[in-house]
Amino acid sequence: MKNQWRMIAALLVALIVIVFALLNTQNVELNFIFGKYSMPLVLVLVISLLAGALIAVLLSTVTIIGLKRQLKESEIKRERAEESAVKKYEQKLTATQAKYQRKLNGKTAATVRQKEDFHK
Fold it and tell me: What is the pTM of this model?
């Protein structure tokens, strides 16, 4: 059903374009710096439309490339920040483990001394 509606819409657009072209067949003169040209109005309009579309595509492509570059840079920064946070966490964890290990070793040594003193 969707394909039928698309086909009908495409036919309507084609019909409108054909009627537009038939209504605008008179010749117009274009004056450029390097010369004068005479051509049908519909051709001038189509060329203008295509040139505008091409310019829009080129400008949007440049913008998209810039945005992709920014996105990539921000992803790299985020990854570096995550790596830095993980490194800091691991350093803090290692320091805390070492601190508790020293405490544990100190208590163990004190316990051993107390047991030795008790048995004497």
Answer: 0.52
